[in-house]
Specification:
It is a single chain. By secondary structure, the protein is an alpha/beta fold. The chain has two domains: 267 residues, TIM Barrel, CATH 3.20.20.20; 95 residues, Sulfite Reductase Hemoprotein, domain 1, CATH 3.30.413.10. The strands form three sheets. The chain has an eight-stranded parallel beta sheet, with helices on one face. Strands 11-12-13-14-15 form a five-stranded mixed beta sheet, sandwiched between helices. Strands 1-2 form a two-stranded antiparallel ribbon. Strand 9, helix 8 and strand 10 form a beta-alpha-beta unit. Helix 6 crosses helix 7. Bound molecules: iron/sulfur cluster (SF4). The site of iron/sulfur cluster (SF4) has 12 residues, from loops.
């Protein structure tokens, strides 16, 4: 598989060995800049590193520009003076190339286009505007051009690939993406990444595997229109997870019909499950069985909810075990950074393998939270 070259999406390096970046998209009306900024802040607080914002009409361009200007700092990017690098805002553009030009003008770090929906001369105008623009990059990196995502989909394939798509959808998508990549390179523009998303998990995996062997461009990976929070999370975990396990994917987006903050949480969970990146505590809990003697289901859920929503713990990669009995529990709890192994109406608290207390069931939650939070200071 070809190794990826690196591009900058504003302050975020993508490809070339950079950590897989988590992306999401706002679902507010972009013209309502206050609401959109509120959602961008919520996404960044949850760990989103690249935010896509749709720009559906020219009337919304001033609000889009304000979102770019007032976007919050990326988590953990603050300098000693308190200055942070702004989260990159990507404009999502369909059909109208003039909106892409407006987004570049507004200072977007990137634009996502499907070039198959535009005349070639207009795509070239976008590419030239992106190449000429400069957006602040990361410390030590020169300011970058506006990045472009070439996002092809089955609905806008060139005529000669449409028929092929009936029998070989992944192959047709990949060829369409590579044609545009070649065209961009002919125009001297290399700050692009590619996506070949599909709502079929199988086609998504097949297309990206094929694409990854044919280009060194960074790849944005996701399963499009995945579904509700429950079913979409599973489809995304299977599709994105299979690709990341193969080393394919430089930015990821979990697409869910729901609060986009959930997309970010699921994306981080996928990264953590593969051991690629971790943000905040990982809760390990047993499935419970006939030996369980305390209410482990509620205890584990409460531990996960309260630790996961604690901003002081967001940057810490720690594991917390919540185990249901004295048979297997102590061993698992001992291997985590912190843990509980429950018994009959009570439980043992572990701190890095050491037993620190035996407490009644009613005190276990608070004691565990205090132990974990105390270690954050
Ligand atoms: Fe059952 Fe104990 Fe294993 Fe939990 S840790 S599943 S209670 S044996």
């Amino acid at each position: 598989m070809a190794s990826r070259r690196r591009i900058m999406v504003g302050a975020v390096p993508v490809g070339g060995g950079a950590p897989v970046a988590v992306q999401s998209m706002t679902c507010t009306r972009t013209g309502d800049a206050d609401a959109t900024l509120r959602q961008v802040r919520a996404l960044v607080a949850a760990g989103c590193e690249v935010v896509r914002v749709s720009l559906p009409t020219a009337e919304e361009a001033p609000a889009f520009a304000r979102v770019v200007r007032e976007a919050p700092a990326l988590a953990g990017s603050e300098s000693a003076e308190g200055e942070g690098r702004r989260v990159p805002i990507i404009a999502d553009i369909h059909f109208d190339w003039r909106l892409a030009l407006a987004a570049v003008e507004a200072g977007a770090a990137g634009v996502r286009i499907n070039p198959g929906t535009m005349a070639e001369k207009h795509v070239r105008e976008i590419v030239e505007a992106a190449a000429d623009a400069r957006v602040p990059a990361a410390p030590g990196e020169p300011d970058a051009p506006v990045a472009i995502r070439i996002g092809v989909n089955a609905g806008s394939l060139p005529r000669d690939l449409r028929e092929r798509a009936q029998a070989d959808a992944p192959g047709a998508l990949v060829d369409a993406a590579l044609r545009w990549a070649e065209q961009f390179e002919e125009w001297g523009f290399t700050a692009y990444k590619l996506s070949v998303k599909s709502s079929s998990v199988r086609d998504t995996i097949a297309a990206y595997r094929l694409l990854a062997g044919k280009t060194d461009a960074p790849l944005h990976v996701g399963v499009t229109e995945a579904g509700t929070v429950w079913s979409g999370s599973i489809k995304s975990a299977v599709g994105i997870g299979a690709l990341l396990a193969d080393g394919v994917g430089d930015t990821i987006r979990v697409s869910l019909t729901g609060d986009p903050v959930e997309e970010v949480r699921v994306a981080w969970q996928i990264l953590a499950a593969l051991g690629l990146r971790r943000r905040g505590p990982e809760v390990i809990s047993c499935p419970t069985c006939g030996r369980t003697e305390v209410d482990i289901v509620n205890l584990a859920e409460e531990v996960e909810r309260r630790l996961g929503s604690d901003p002081a713990l967001a940057g810490r990669a720690i594991s917390v075990a919540v185990m249901g009995c004295r048979v297997n529990g102590p061993e698992e709890a001992r291997h985590a950074d912190y843990g509980i192994a429950a018994g009959a109406g009570e439980g043992v608290l572990f701190d890095h393998g050491e037993r620190v207390a035996t407490l009644p069931e009613g005190q276990l939650l608070d004691a565990l939270l205090e132990l974990v939070r105390g270690s954050a200071g």
